[in-house]
Amino acid sequence: MEADSIASSVGPVATGEPPFPYRTRCLVFVRVLLYPCCCFLEAQTLLLLHSSGWCVWFGRRTRSLWDRFIVEVCVWFQGSRFCEWEFPAAVILLELLVECTIPKDDGTLASFVGFRVQHDNARGPMKGGIRFHHEVGAHLSLSLSLQNSLLCSVIWQSGTSFRSMIATVSVCVGTMLLLCITSGVLNKVDPDEVNALAQLMTWKTAVANIPYGGAKGGIGCSPGELTITELERLTRVFTQKIHDLIGIHTDVPAPDMGTNPQTMAWILDEYSKFHGYSPAVVTGKPVDLGGSLGRDAATGRGVLFATEALLADHGKSIKDHRFVIQGFGNVGSWAAQLISDAGGKVVAVSDVSGAIKNPKGIDIEKLLKHSVENHGIRGFNGGESINPGSLLTEDCDVLIPAALGGVINRENANDIRAKFIIEAANHPTDPEADEILSKKGVVILPDIYANSGGVTVSYFEWVQNIQGFMWDEDKVNAELKTYMTRSFKDMKEMCRTHECDLRMGAFTLGVNRVARATILRGWEA
Predict the structure, then answer these.
(1) What residues are labeled active site?
(2) Which residues are annotated as a binding site?
(3) Quick one: angle between helices 140-156 and 22-52, nearest 10?
(4) Which of 154, 280, 340, 514 is most open to solvent, judged by the fewest CB atoms within 10 Å of its CB?
(5) What is the pLDDT of residues 113-125, one digit of tens each?
């Protein structure tokens, strides 16, 4: 079946069982309504226990009791008309908000907003990172209060005394949250950015042809302002709130901005308290807990393989080409090192501390050592210091944005001199810049393919955990190259079929695969 006919036949689910479990729908409804109240009571309990020195043991027991209470209320809700909701197959399946209250090391309490967005599971378990960042967004706390007030008016109409009680609690909680917002008590979280990233994961895993859907989540916090013990408490509380919604064959989190293998280890341990030891519930773990060899370099190595495939398609190779790399974190540093090892010449690099260039080529090994010792590339004597804002317009053959999104825009697109752009970051090129660069003849390798190496090796880790058989690093890297090369060929074939550029070809390929799975599972209208 042609891609266009498949995509056009996908619509909302009109009948039949929605694409996630009945009990989960009850759980989401009750948690959105009752969690703020539970978190408030939990905070008061923790404050008392902390002052008496029994916080650690009883704190965990208290949270377990609140979770048990919510699950029991879910059972009561079974059969309610609120569980008859219908969900479209191609929109957000679930968007969950929780409040995480922890005691800080100084004895005070702090509240943070956590969330998990699940977009699509037509092709398999949902997959997506968990990020800890203070600029995840705004407005979700307000929407929760308004939603509580709206839900209470609906429940009130049912007439039973128990539901009336819940409605009253909801009104009180809604008012309490509004007061918290105005006083700046809660960290604020905006779902729009996370929803977009969850959808991006759906298409990315489809383009890579691995059996996953898309999800995203995190906590609105500043990790640098929290101690290691506070981060552990926060991660464990968040896991307690969402452990019923993630799972080996349901939703598999991974590290993202502000999180790392240690964060995944805490999630694994906390999840295992409820469901037994389950190493496949998260990926990006430490190797000692079932993490995959090669995972740390996977995204950067995937960028290398993607660049090789693109240049080969144009009759070129990495050797002797000049590269500019924006971002020298995990992805950028590995990409720079591997490209340099393959014979490429990295002529300019930037990170949060500054930017440097050297037309003769930067010694990446020395730069890596300097970056580790000085927490950034600023002050490196192997190149000339330049304005970070001018890095994207430096003369080069290949530009690799590997930092933030939206850095290539209409203001600088006309000044970019690279012939190829490899999008190692998520959505670094905005639509206006994309059009300008396309008219200039610049070839852009889209992010949903170019940076898919990380999620591909996460899939390998998941497979190894389920099999209980670990691969050596050479096998991981060889399999990654196979997947990246095959995905590029599939994407190019789609471009030839529809006479479109690489970005449109990648999205057409991803949507086509998701649409086919949706139809085969019987979810079409």
Answers:
(1) 216
(2) 127, 204, 299, 330, 458
(3) 110
(4) 154
(5) 998 999 999 999 9
